[in-house]
Structure formats: structure tokens, C-alpha cells
Amino acid sequence: MSTAEGGPGRNLRMARRVLFTMIRTATPADLDAIVHLHTEARATYYRGHLPEEEYAGSEEVGRSRDGWARAMGRDDATVLCAERDGVLAGIAAHSVRDGVTHLTQLHVAPAHWREGIGTELHAACVAAWQRDGVLEARLEVFVHNTRAQSFYVARGWAPDPVHPRAGTHLVLRLAVPAAPYPPR
Hints:
Helices cover 38% and strands 28% of the residues. It is an alpha+beta fold and 184 residues long. The protein has one domain: Gcn5-related N-acetyltransferase (GNAT) (Aminopeptidase), CATH 3.40.630.30. The protein is globular.
């Protein structure tokens, strides 16, 4: 097989391509792209478990849009965008509710899975929590979304022993490391 057909040289060329991810705070101009990415990502883990109307129907997309817009306007919330080549590839949001820090959203466009974008967004959230002196964070993950559960466990999240489940979601907790994250 020749290099042009995807032979041995192809992997070398791919390894040399440096992928740059820019993590930045979301702006209102990002709202349409955020809602689209959120809807696309949620479909991957809800499909087959919930009726499509509940994760991609017009009412749900409208509710999602309202929620993201509110999050961007809150003083106690942060919405982050991850861009690759100027295109939105991932989103994350965290906020404080009742004095507890929550990772409320972390989604990567399926076309960009396994490229490190989720890891970079997660690291940006943890770094912000460290700067703010946060000692612990919580999140909820859909019980059937085993891919996300594995992602979080690999980054130190564990089941919350006090509140292990919230309906169809597992509750995970992270003891925010004191040292710079990720460890170097």
C-alpha cells in the first residue's frame, strides 16, 4: 500500500500535525454553535434510551438555548468554548449552587472525540477551581453514558457516597487537587 493510500507514511504525517485548541470564555455570539454542539453530543448518549423529542425536539432545543444563555449571563457560572481551526469543537460550563461547585456541562463534538479536547476543557475547569480555592466539585452523568463515566473516573472523579444517584444520572465528586492540574 502506498503512502497516498494510507500506508505507513500516513501515520507519520498525522503524528506531525500539531492540533491547537484555543479555550476561551463563551460570548453571546457563540450561542447558536453551542446549542448545536450540545444537541449533537447529547444525541450520542440519549439515543436509544430516551425519545428523540426529549433530547433533540424543538422544545428541548429551545430549553437548552435558554439555559446556555442564562449560564453565560450568570456571575457564578462560567461557560468555556474549545475551538480547533476556528470551529467550535467542545464546550464546558461550571457554576456554584448552594455553595457547591458543579461541572454542569462538558461536551465535545463527536467529530472531535479522542483528540484531547475534553481533557483540555476539563483541565481549564480544574485550573479555574484551583485559582478560586475550590476544594471539591460535583457533576451528574447519564447512567448509560459509560464513555463519559470512564472519562471522568480517569481524571479522578468518584461516585458521591452521600448522593450516588439523581434519577437517571450518577453523581460524581472530585477532590480538586491543590497542585497545578494536570500534574506535570
